[in-house]
Amino acid sequence: MTFAFDIFRSPVGDLTMIASGKGLAALLWENDDPLRVRVRPGAKTPDHPLLQETSRQLRAYFSGRLTRFDIPLDFQGTDFQKQVWAALLRIPFGQLRSYGQVAADIGHPSASRAVGAANGRNPLSIIAPCHRVIGSAGALTGFAGGLEAKRYLLDHEQSVLRTGGEWRTQVDSNHWPLPSEGNALSS
Asked: For the whole model, what pTM was predicted?
């Protein structure tokens, strides 16, 4: 399979966008571990229509004008990983889930560690928002882009919601309130 790539300069560092013939296959961090996602860029193709659209949507996201991406995705992974990544796409902008909540969402309530492993291999960070998954006690946990980038993304989304009239209070910079059953944030 042939892949095209381009670089998007973001507030959290340079992101490598990689497109296949089916959709966006990866959005990799500047210093990404080459073993984390096994999709590798082919030819640099800045005029590739999907990469241009991805850049446009990322600019809109980082400027606070986009809360849900609408581009074709081409997840490369196991069936279980694809289930987890599909669940990430269902987490609303600015909301959080624990690994256990994602595991329950995909019908495997005791698989929170496996969900964590799949989350760590998410090839489409930001677009499939793995940054919205935190520890069960509200702690920020591992993130391929680093915890500073995760904190930035969560703060950014809260800032966008705040200007739109919604706001949740962050407990501190390393712990976030987690939605619970019956809480409006958990729906």
From this structure: 0.85
